[in-house]
Amino acid sequence: MNREIWVKIDPWNADMVTTALEGGANGVMVPEGFSDQVKALGKILTIAPDGDLQPGRDVFCAAITCKEDEPEIVRMSREKPVILECCDWSVIPLENLIAQDARVIMPVRCLEDAQTAFGILEKGVSHILIHPQTPSDLKHMLSVLRKTEGHIPLQPAEIVEIKTVGMGDRVCVDTCTLMSPGQGMLVGNSSSGLFLIHAETLVNPYVAPRPFRVNAGAVHAYTRIPGDRTGYLCDLTAGDSVLLVDSQGNTTTAVVGRLKIERRPLMQITARVGEFQFSTLVQNAETIRLTRPDGMAVSVVQLEPGDIVLTAIEEAGRHFGHKITETILEK
After folding, report:
1. What pTM was estimated for this model as a whole?
2. Does residue 175 sit in the same domain as residue 201?
3. Are residues 208 and 309 in the same domain?
4. Side-chain half-sphere of 312: how many Cα atoms within 13 Å?
5. Residues 6+ away with beta carbon under 8 Å from 183
């Protein structure tokens, strides 16, 4: 799910706008007459009577005080996103709204409320509207929320086979983020079975660490991208966003700086979860690593049948990167 974080800045505060920009907020909601001042500080979406999005035209604002208000909110959200207005957000039947796929923007004032809103029904709202007290409060909230933006359940899989397959074009994804041990990208031949490919964070005798890089695999492979989607490695380009995942399944978004596509010897790694088998193709080199359940990296040249690595499994098929329910067989 793509998470949008807007910041309400009323009364006007230029320092708050700067903090929102530097913290990665997606938009700022400001009083009428201040949109141009926001644009003078940086490029960011403005929500205001004279902004990029105008209340009433592009987004609704609706008061909600009890469950009886729910049907109207759902109806309105079918037309435009709805910014909820309330004195006590805990009275909102948020679970029901989320279950009905209502496009609501949840007002929050503290980090705990933001984390709760993003976690409702393990799905959460897609938007929140933060109304912080001070720039330092806002900076802390954005830092925590952007560090971990969601969760993908990971499953241990047993390695079945490792074999060399010849030469092919492989992709190194160089991001604009310095990754930590245990972090990497989900990559695989099939969207239904992806391996957690570890970032190049470790010291080794062959090359210096490149903690911004994931040597992800062959050009045809899928990887998870924001918005609960997959994309082909070869289709990524500078400025795109990819999903980084750690060994606990926590996700964050990184910006692609460049791709390095080079012809290299490849190996196929096949694993299984229960009766389901799946595979991926990676460069045959010591520096390419998968991830064990304890978060430790394991080189692909050291893998043996019976070893356990982290993977992400899903039952639905994909069409142009989106989940679908029709039967798709990938072999």
Report:
1. 0.71
2. yes
3. yes
4. 29
5. 198, 199, 201, 244, 245, 246, 247
